[in-house]
Model the fold of this input.
Amino acid sequence: MSSADREWYFYWDDMIGFAEKVIAYTEGFSQTDFINSGITYDATVRNLELIGEAATHIPEDVRKATPKIPWRQLIATRNRLIHGYLGIDNDTLWSIIETDVPPLLLELQRYEAHQNRPS
Done:
């Protein structure tokens, strides 16, 4: 099955899983510990990239129906992380992890409960 054949709600589920990983991977870390963590840093950045990638597969009508989710920012963050690998600002990255991902996860989970999915 190609990504073109994959239903959008699978990408939604992926976004939830990636956000949960970001939170789990960084739990208990200070910003300094996180920056110096090596594998945890890399895995967290990868999951932030994947959130943005999955967001590109959510249809426009679904995006419009979920205005509390910052779709453009998710995709822009993905692009910045993938294409600006030498220029990642760790303060901004930590801010995204600490202040943006937890409410994003809540919004994704809130909407997931109301989705009409095929059986």
Remarks:
- The helical segments are 8-26, 31-35, 39-55, 60-65, 71-83, 90-112.
